[in-house]
């Protein structure tokens, strides 16, 4: 079978891929993440996931390369990772007591050809107190995360409800990633070994 490369610097994505029992190598992709003028949020994350996968596929055409991108979307506005603590606080104020979408795209690239899929999850935040926002921003957690929160960490206490894929919110939708890998000729379950280490062990 082909080898797997994760084109991502995100430790969450590596952890989720490890959870699936996949053996892989990490090679982050460095691409321009500027949205195009009038680019729709779904199109934007799909394009970025494919570009990340294709950038690394160029250097390793034989491998199956996985790329992914996550954005938080509210009122059709794309919220990426905050550049400053002030920006993180502003994003969290915007998300307070409202619903937003988390859009995650995942792509596989093999021999320079990419296939991608989009997963949209609806998340509702309870009202956030100003002192909570300040403390959360001070913790540093929001800084490397789309929308300035991480559901898998302290940010989980803000989430009232979620409809869709939890793993997609964290950064890599497990079900869709397994489907794409199978389509690329890597059905993950066929690689599982008794006693093989996985996250829950
Ligand atoms: C909403 C949300 C996002 N995130 C993270 C997932 C992604 O790592 C990050 C979104 O930024 P991305 O630009 O999608 O990814 P990245 O820059 O971290 O990594 P790479 O481009 O190399 O793959 O936000 C969480 O960890 N938890 C959450 O609840």
UniProtKB/TrEMBL annotation:
<comment type="similarity">
    <text>Belongs to the Maf family. YceF subfamily.</text>
</comment>
<keyword id="KW-0378">Hydrolase</keyword>
<dbReference type="GO" id="GO:0036221">
    <property type="term" value="F:UTP diphosphatase activity"/>
</dbReference>
<protein>
    <recommendedName>
        <fullName>dTTP/UTP pyrophosphatase</fullName>
        <ecNumber>3.6.1.9</ecNumber>
    </recommendedName>
</protein>
<dbReference type="InterPro" id="IPR029001">
    <property type="entry name" value="ITPase-like_fam"/>
</dbReference>
<feature type="active site" description="Proton acceptor">
    <location>
        <position position="69"/>
    </location>
</feature>
<keyword id="KW-0963">Cytoplasm</keyword>
<comment type="similarity">
    <text>Belongs to the Maf family. YhdE subfamily.</text>
</comment>
<dbReference type="GO" id="GO:0009117">
    <property type="term" value="P:nucleotide metabolic process"/>
</dbReference>
<keyword id="KW-0546">Nucleotide metabolism</keyword>
<feature type="site" description="Important for substrate specificity">
    <location>
        <position position="12"/>
    </location>
</feature>
<dbReference type="GO" id="GO:0036218">
    <property type="term" value="F:dTTP diphosphatase activity"/>
</dbReference>
<dbReference type="GO" id="GO:0005737">
    <property type="term" value="C:cytoplasm"/>
</dbReference>
<dbReference type="InterPro" id="IPR003697">
    <property type="entry name" value="Maf-like"/>
</dbReference>
<feature type="site" description="Important for substrate specificity">
    <location>
        <position position="70"/>
    </location>
</feature>
<dbReference type="Pfam" id="PF02545">
    <property type="entry name" value="Maf"/>
</dbReference>
<feature type="site" description="Important for substrate specificity">
    <location>
        <position position="152"/>
    </location>
</feature>
<comment type="function">
    <text>Nucleoside triphosphate pyrophosphatase that hydrolyzes dTTP and UTP. May have a dual role in cell division arrest and in preventing the incorporation of modified nucleotides into cellular nucleic acids.</text>
</comment>
<comment type="function">
    <text>Nucleoside triphosphate pyrophosphatase that hydrolyzes 7-methyl-GTP (m(7)GTP). May have a dual role in cell division arrest and in preventing the incorporation of modified nucleotides into cellular nucleic acids.</text>
</comment>
């Amino acid at each position: 079978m082909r080898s797997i490369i994760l084109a991502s610097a995100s430790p969450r994505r590596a952890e989720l891929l490890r959870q699936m029992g996949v053996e892989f190598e990490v090679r982050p992709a460095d691409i321009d993440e500027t949205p195009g003028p009038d680019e729709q949020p779904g199109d934007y994350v799909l394009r970025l996931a494919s570009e990340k996968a294709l950038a690394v596929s160029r250097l390793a055409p034989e491998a199956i390369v996985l790329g992914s991108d996550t954005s938080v979307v509210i009122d059709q506005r794309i919220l990426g990772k905050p550049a400053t603590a002030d920006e993180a606080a502003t994003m969290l104020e915007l998300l307070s007591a409202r619903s937003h979408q988390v859009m995650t795209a995942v792509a596989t690239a093999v021999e320079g050809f990419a296939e991608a899929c989009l997963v949209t999850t609806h998340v509702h935040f309870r009202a956030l107190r100003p002192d909570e926002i300040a403390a959360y921003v001070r913790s540093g957690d929001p800084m490397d995360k789309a929308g300035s929160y991480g559901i898998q960490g302290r940010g989980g206490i803000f989430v009232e409800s979620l409809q869709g894929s939890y793993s997609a919110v964290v950064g890599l939708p497990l079900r869709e990633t397994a489907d794409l890998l199978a389509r690329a000729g890597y059905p993950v379950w066929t690689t599982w070994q008794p006693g093989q280490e996985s996250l829950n062990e």
